[in-house]
Amino acid sequence: MSGRLTVVGVGPAGPEWITPEVTALLADATDLVGYGPYLERVAGAHHRVHASDNREELARAAHALDMAAEGRDVGVVSGGDPGVFAMAAAVFEALEGAQPGRWDAVAVEVLPGVSAMQAAAARLGAPLGNDFCAISLSDNLKPWSLIRRRVRLAAEADFAMAFYNPISRARPWQLGAALDIVREVQGPDTLVVLATAVGRGEREELRVATLGEVDPAAANMSTLVIVGAASTRVLERPSGRRHVYTPRYVESAESQ
């Protein structure tokens, strides 16, 4: 009898970011599959743990599906939300490319989690309070020319933008290049936020700057970047705390 495979999101940091639904699934699972640092956050003594490198998503998905086909209750663990640049898509890619009958009896579910952009936005206030989009700046699975085009079109449409995977040792230049594209369209006063290690205690850092002054070198692999729309603004509270938000209304809505 086949088991089940559930793809879960465990949020950006500690257990307080995990939904009760995911917590219950993790308690019942026999096996956990995922990137090592994510598994370390949630694995219990009763779990069989199968860690792999973060670039082995399809192989990880196939391994998880094979174990579920053997009758195990498998949890595929993603940071943040599993459907946002994470393991849910990899599982369905594996299913679509499988030989007929290989995993037909495996029940597959996806449980949502708190995404990095949601966590960062909540810390700041509401920078994604109007229309927005999310773009991964990694060109591991798509060409840079496509990323460049999407960033430009989003800037021209005046979306707020959440940039995932903004920088790494292998591609330290791409965040700067993406911000240069936005500068060509929007003014230097457009707000940019670098939200690093949100929810991870003393490592958490929030930097609010403008396109004219932001330093891409301040970002790292734990950073989520939010580029505001033209209407995004800073609200100064009497307490001295600063919030970043994008109003729900648009003052001028001219058809392009």
Features of the shown structure:
25% strand, 7 helices, 29% helix, 13 strands, 256 residues, alpha/beta
Q: How would you sum up this structure in a few lines?
A:
This protein is an alpha/beta fold. Helix content is 29%, strand content 25%. Strands 3-2-4-1-5 form a five-stranded parallel sheet, sandwiched between helices.
Q: What does this protein look like?
A:
This protein is α/β, with parallel strands linked by helices. It is 29% helix and 25% strand. The protein is built from seven helices and 13 strands. The strands form three sheets. A five-stranded parallel beta sheet has the order 3-2-4-1-5, with helices on both faces. Strands 7-8-11-9-10 form a five-stranded mixed beta sheet, sandwiched between helices. A hairpin with an 8-residue loop joins strand 9 (191-196) and strand 10. Helix 3 crosses helix 4 and helix 6 packs parallel to helix 7 (174-185). The longest helix has 13 residues, at 57-69. The chain is globular, with a radius of gyration of 20 Å. The relative contact order is 0.14. The mean pLDDT is 94.
Number of strands: 13
Q: What is the percentage of strand-forming residues? A: 25-35%
In the sheet with the most strands, the strands line up as: 3-2-4-1-5
Average pLDDT, to the nearest integer? Answer: 94
End-to-end separation: 57 Å
List segments where confidence is low: pLDDT < 50 over at least 5 consecutive residues.
none
Global shape: globular
How large is the count of helical segments? 7
Helix content: 25-40%
SS content category: alpha/beta
User: How many whole angstroms does the radius of gyration measure?
Assistant: 20 Å
